[in-house]
Amino acid sequence: MKKILMVLTSVSEIGDTGEKTGYNVAEAAHPWKVFKDSGHFVDFASIQGGQPPRDEADPKDSIQVAFTEDETTRAGLYNTARVDVVDPDQYDAIFLVGGHGTMWDFPDSEGLQNLVAGVYNSGGVVGAVCHGPAGLLNVELANGFRLVEGRKVAAFTNDEEVAAGKDKVIPFFLADRLEEQGATHVSAGVFEEMVVVDDRLVTGQNPASAAGVAKEMEKLLAEVIHQEKAEEQHEAEALRAEKDAEKSAKKAAAAGTEH
Question: Are the C-beta atoms of residues 123 and 200 closer than 8 Å to each other?
Fold first, then answer.
């Protein structure tokens, strides 16, 4: 069982359009189900803390319905922790949920940058989907490099912004900004699934990619669990061998005393 932190936007309006927004429920619900089904513990945080705004849930999507009705999840979302007070050492993975609001509050949040860098620096897994990769911008690792520098990433594309009618509203094109910071943006067709894994960084292009990102993160976490179990077994075997050696030495000493 690993601890995973899902981070949500605190922005409730798209620019100054008056159009309501928040985190994308599908992009939170489908990864949440993957993580929960794998037996992991899921926590929630947001940029400002408290109850984060959300987009409309799709009542025809049983996973979204389950997410919005789950009592533990509702309690966690009612009063989320503020990102700048969360200890990254408490988590094995961090997942940045999308939603257009992230374009306004994710990129310049030092608290979020510290969280993402902290999890990655300690060997954890970082995932982000759709507009969630906005939270990967400006993240600097302990080695002095930006997290996205020299990496392949997926994120909401310029064509998808146009198709969604948000290209004139957003503060910047996410795919372009990621490339400006040294990433190689990899994309599929408009609203088609695309998941990219680069070391311990997993990114997805759009809502259709959300579950896929979580599944790839789960594979990486499973590898960590397997390695930890192997190390524990090795330590147990070494301890057993050490005790056996001590017993043998005592027996030999006792036999020598008798003679």
Answer: yes
Round to whole Å and give the CA distance between 32 and 23: 13
- State the angle between helix axes of 62-69 and 71-78 in degrees (0 to 180), rounded to the nearest 10: 60
Structure tokens at 166: 């948000």
Between CA 210 and CA 48, with CA 202 as vertex, the angle to 5 degrees is: 70
Confidence band for 115, pLDDT divided at 50, 70 and 90: very high
**Global pTM?**
0.88
Residue 234: the pLDDT is: 63
Backbone angles phi, psi at 107, to 5 degrees: -60, -30
pLDDT for 155 equals 98
Q: What percentage of the chain carries pLDDT values higher than 90?
A: 84
Mean pLDDT, the chain, rounded, equals 93
8-31 residues labelled b (16+ CB within 10 A) or e (exposed): bbbbeebbeeeeebbbbbbbbbbb
d(CA 156, CA 159): 8
Give the gyration radius of the chain's Cα atoms.
22
Q: Considering only CA atoms, which of 62, 67, 63 is closest in space to residue 8?
A: 67
Rounded Cα gap, residues 221 and 93, in angstroms: 8
Buried b / exposed e over 160-177, threshold 16 CB at 10 Å, is bbeeeebeeebeebbbeb
Residue 223 in this model has a pLDDT that exceeds 90: no
